[in-house]
What does this fold into?
Amino acid sequence: MKTDVAVVGGGLCGALCCWTLQAQGVECVWIRGPGRPTSAVGPGLAVPAPTDHLARVVRGLGVEACLQMWDFGCRGLELLSEVCGQLQVPYSRGVLFLPSNAVEANDLAETEELLRHHGRGIMRAFAGDPSAPSRGGQSLSQARLLESGLSFSPSVLLQALCDVLPAEICIEGSMQPGIGQASGGALLLRLDQGDPVEAEIAIVCAGAASARLVPGLSGWLWPQLGQARIVAGQLPFPAVSANWGHESYQQLEAGRVLAAGFRPDPSPDDRVEEGPPDETFQGFLARFLSLRFGIEGEAEQTLAAALSVTLDNLPLIGPLPGESRLLLATGFCGRGYAFGAAAARALAALIFSGKSTIPRILNPSRLV
It folds into this structure.
């Protein structure tokens, strides 16, 4: 099979890549793996914030770089809301963001005014910018809560995309490690079953599996186990992101709450690609549910799945150094919904127009 673009990865990022490419008239195929594509186990929260403690990120990268990353994530929210609207997938704007690790349930009553502030002010305040907005003499660096995000059902959106994408572009097979070159110069992607795919450009968005597929990534990208639990309860907001995104909570139907999290500051020693839910980490999730929202009780269900993390806790988005036709969209470090959608839009624009809108701090050349 020959095509202009091959998209490798069966998750939401891969589906959105195909959606955006098709919308621009670019011929593509979607190598999405066997069976029905699945989304991550965590809540469908898309928050355009850095993946690490904000003050540390600002000190390390500078405020302008962080603003670029924030705006990039916001473009992902725009695409998600557009696609949800077109496909009639329910969603809500306004995810509650709790940076502090010590926020308790009674603090939630103070949110109404703070929810109206934009993330730029908080970033500038952390950087010591005197022009940062304040309210009542309190710098926004003191603000614990921020409304900026989108809540939706990843599995419902992914299924809706699968239903509308042409069946002929979908390949239910797994890609073998390594990318070769066809006799005509195109990239050659070999599958575990069936004929190989020849593509002028390949987008690899296969999460932690990307390290197996693309040579040179294994030292910079690895899997970490994220975990979730479902309990009976009621949140004061539709969705909440806490502890700089290392915890997240979403209100489900029938009075149930989905809580999820992953370990901050992972290292290559934490490589875990699969495994059962860990009792110790599940205990952390249960404790934070009680601490933040007063929700207690036994879990109706516990879940675990791998997410992809990088050495510096920032995604890898853009061309692989030395091979401009091989584009990466991986290592989202628990921010796969906002940054995955932003990557899909940016990579489609790069392919279609040759112009990059990807922040330089996310370019794979910084690590690979």
